[in-house]
Amino acid sequence: MKRMNEKEIKILTRDNRVITLKELFQGKQEARKDLAGLSFEQKIKMLVDLQRLACSWGGRKDILIWRI
Amino acid sequence: MKNVINILNEIKDRGLIKDYALGGAIAALRWVEPFFTRDLDVFIILSDKEEKGLIVLTPVYEYLRNKGYDKWIGQWLVIEGIPVEFIPAEGLSREALENAAEVEYEGAVTRVMKPEYLIALFLKASRQKDKIKVQMLLEQARVDIAALKDILNRYGLTERFKPFEKNE
After folding, report:
1. Is B78 buried (19+), middle (13-18) or exposed (0-12) by CB count in 10 A?
2. What is the pLDDT of residues B31-40, one digit of tens each?
3. Cβ–Cβ of B30/A32 closer than 8 Å?
4. Chain B residues with CB inside 8 Å of A33's CB?
5. What are the φ and ψ backbone dihedral angles of B69, each rounded to 5 degrees?
6. What's the confidence (pLDDT) of residue A8?
7. Could you give the strand order of the β-sheet that contains B72-73, starting from the edge strand earlier in sequence?
8. How confident is the model at residue A66 (pLDDT cuts 50, 70, 90)?
9. Cα distances (Å, whole numbers) of residue B64 to B8, B60, B61, B84, B111
10. pLDDT tens, position by position, B76-135
11. Taking 60 as the threshold, does the pLDDT of residue B168 lie above it?
12. Are B36 and A29 an interchain contact pair (Cβ–Cβ within 8 Å)?
């Protein structure tokens, strides 16, 4: 079977929109840049959520969840 | 977090330290997307009164102990529910501290190391988790590449940056 590259692989997504795998990854990268632009306060709140997740779901009992 | 910043500013105002800046993962988090970390690295320059060649953190720890902060988790002192590590700034980290950006957190003003210096410090440490942060900073933060290259050149880190140059 011929191996397809990122430009060739297409995905049917919401609202019947067709995007390539490459576009999907580009979108993810853009979303990460948007997150990078959040305020310091918002990021710290998200960090605490990650710490909670690591503790409860990940079973990391050695982690101190920050008090903010 | 705001309370920790207030405590750090208090230590500085009382002259126990000359200056401080947030470094490490939390500083990187200021410039990139949120990611997991567990502690707060605080780089400090001690008072000018300190003798050269001997870094004495005792007065800082004494002061904090008198304020009730005496719980340690490994190398971290827990201040207002956050594990904090004080790291004396020397060489590259001292320059990074001196050039740190002023950042507000819920009205409290603190200082955070800039992306160019963080990249240099992460390259200096060069553990896998540091390299990931270098990548994130290059992709997501506004990095002054000329300033970065100058720092890397002065601290002998240019070679370590080469694998990342294609991502500039």
Report:
1. middle
2. 999 999 999 9
3. no
4. 33, 139-140
5. -95, 90
6. 78
7. B72-73, B76-79, B82-88, B40-46, B17-23, B108-112, B101-105
8. very high
9. 10, 6, 5, 12, 20
10. 999 999 999 999 999 999 999 999 999 999 999 999 999 999 999 999 999 999 999 999
11. no
12. no
Residue of A nearest to B32 (CA): A36
> Which phi and psi (to 5°) does residue A27 adopt?
-60, -40
**DSSP-assigned beta bridge partners for residue A58:** none
Please give the C-alpha separations between residue B84 and each of A42, B76, B99, in angstroms, as whole numbers: 20, 5, 21
**Contact status of B20 with chain A (Cβ, < 8 Å):** no
Chain A interface, mutation test: which of B3, B7, B29, B109, most A Cβ atoms within 10 Å?
B29
- As given in the structure block, the two tokens for residue A55 are 């503790």
- Name the token pair of B37: 């970390």
Asked if B8 and B20 touch (Cβ cutoff 8 Å), the reply is yes
Interface contact B36-A51, CB threshold 8 A:
yes
To which H or E segment does residue B83 belong? Answer: strand B82-88
CA-to-CA dists, residue A2 to A5, A8, A9, B46, B65, angstroms: 10, 11, 12, 64, 67
Residues 30-49 of A with CB under 8 A from B: 32-33, 35-36, 38, 40-41, 43-44, 46-47
DSSP H/E element including A36: helix A21-36
Its ipTM equals: 0.83
Question: Which tens digits make up the pLDDT trace of A16-58?
Answer: 888 888 888 888 888 888 899 999 999 999 999 999 999 888 8
* Predicted TM-score (pTM) of this structure: 0.89
